[in-house]
Amino acid sequence: MIRVLLVDDQPLIRSGFRALLDLEDDIEVVAEAADGAEGLALAREHLPDIALIDIQMPGLDGIETTRRIAADPSLACVHVVILTNYGLEEYVFHALRAGAAGFLVKDIQPEDFLHSVRVAARGDALLAPSITRRLIDRYVTQPFATAVGKALEELTNREREAVALVAQGLSNDEIADRMVISPLTAKTHVNRAMTKLHARDRAQLVVLAYESGLVAPRRS
Prior knowledge:
Elements: E1 2-7, H1 11-22, E2 27-33, H2 36-46, E3 50-54, H3 62-71, E4 79-84, H4 89-98, E5 102-105, H5 110-121, E6 126-127, H6 129-140, H7 146-152, H8 157-167, H9 172-179, H10 183-197, H11 202-212
Parallel strand pairs: 1-2, 1-3, 3-4, 4-5, 5-6
């Protein structure tokens, strides 16, 4: 059972998401919060698998709420997915740097939303397709991160290859197909890379891959 916490200051939005999630046999909404402070308290109380958090709220906003969840060792099991009406780049970067496992716009289709919750619960990085292109373009213009580049030197060639494929949005099964290895071996490469790079999850692995220059977008 995937346990979900909803954090949004708009009751209508919360009720809409809850109605959708409550229809699923493998998903349970354990609590709702109207602001970040309440959401943080409920996250500590219920330890949900997923916290769906609105980015713009009065008081403690979604970015700071995410940052506090990510910084709390007792909440290491909580994967934050940011929800917003806005697909602007700065929200994406701040959310991922704060420790979000994913970022979705609220106009997402219901079936894609449910799939996204399940993907995030598995610990996979999650970005709406409309945002991915801008994320890549923005990171390619950033200065090379020397510290990250040195950390990448500790990875084996296969681990670097796996990280590059994660940054392209591939799942472990897809990475296994591309590298001609088993899904378990692919997962092992990804997990070892996360450990060596001190990445909290796959979303941060994506950020590190682009910051370091390990991956660059294809230009049309």
